[in-house]
Write a structure and sequence with these properties.
Number of domains: 1
Helix content: 25-40%
Distance between the termini: 12 Å
Number of strands: 4
Strand content: 15-25%
Shape: globular
Strand order of the largest sheet: 1-2
Structural class: alpha+beta
Largest sheet: 2 strands, antiparallel
Length: about 80
Amino acid sequence: MLQSSFLIMKVNYSSDNRNETFLGEYPNVPGYPHFFILESDGTFLHSQGTAELEEGRGYNERIFLEFLKKWQPSR
């Protein structure tokens, strides 16, 4: 579902590279990692911190899949 329904793009944010041009297009976030959900035309839909999706040292599979289903494009 993830790769067939979403384009995944990793954007680096660090003290050496703040990616201000790209990240300036979206709401400020309190921390990273972070997900931005966009429509296929680039329209911003949702901003999501990862803390609620995590469990231990990774993601809670059930919660993460529910998150993806909520934003999965209808076909």
